[in-house]
TrEMBL record:
Record protein name field: Uncharacterized protein
Length: 72
């Protein structure tokens, strides 16, 4: 099966993000540190878990999928 243009665009963005974050914030002004990204994700998880937004399907799925790693 041939990838669609949308899939190729997503793969291109993923490669760019990979490149930026593997080299780190010292080489790219717009990159955040790994610790900052983790802190941001934890904050997002906490906000989604404790809010009325959890009624939304996509928010609920995010909270369910992330609950095991964040409970460790």
């Amino acid at each position: 099966m041939e990838p669609s243009a949308r899939d190729e665009g997503a793969l291109c963005r993923l490669r760019q993000l990979d490149h930026v974050y593997l080299e780190g914030p010292s080489k790219h002004d717009h990159a955040m540190s790994f610790e900052t990204l983790i802190d941001t994700l934890i904050c997002l998880f906490d906000e989604c878990q404790n809010s009325t937004l959890r009624k939304e399907r996509c928010i609920s799925e995010f909270v369910e999928s992330a609950s095991l790693p964040f409970s460790l």
